[in-house]
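call fold(seq) -> C-alpha cells
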Amino acid sequence: MKNLSILGIITAVLLLPLLSACQSDNVVTPTPLPSGSLPSSTGTEAPDDLINTPGGTGYRAGFQLEREEHHWPPIEIATVVLGTGSDILNIRYRAYIESKAGETRNNIISVTKDGGLVGSRLVLYTNTAPDGMKLTILNGNGLWGSLAAVLAIEISLEVSPGQYVFRIGIKVDGKDFGTLPCTINIIK
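ret:
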C-alpha cells in the first residue's frame, strides 16, 4: 500500500507540467492578455519571484530551503468567492501589490471549487490595464483539482507614484465568473 502511495505522488508530480501545458492558451476578449514565459533572472531577487514546487507555482517568500535563512516578508493573499449555486469558485490572488516603477510583479491566481474539480481551462482577461503597465499571462500550475495562472505585471519606469486599479476577469471552461479588483501602489 505504501508503494502505491509513493507511485501516486510520483505520477502526480510528473503529470502536473503536462496539465499546466493544457491551460497555456489564456487569452480571451474583451482585452486579451498575451501569454509569455518566465522572465530570465535579473540577478536581483524579490519576494514575489516565482518558484516551481511539487505543490505548484509559488512565491519565493513562501518557500524556504533547509538550512537557509528566510528573510522575505510574507505575500498578502486575498480569498474571494465568485459564482452562485453549485458553480461557486474560491479565488486566491494578490488584491494589493506595492512596487517601484521599472519592476515586474507577479500575481498567482489560484482557483478551487468546494467538493470537486474546478474545470479544465482557466482564462484571465481585463477590461482596463493601467497606462504604463504591461500584463502577461505565464503558465502556472497548482495542486490536483485546482487551476492556476500567473499574471506578470511589468511596470514602466515612466509610471508616476500613486495607486492604479484594474480588474482581473476569471473564466473557467468558457463560463465568465466576473472580475476582481487589483490595486498596484507605485512607491518612490
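Residues 2-22 form the longest helix (21 residues).
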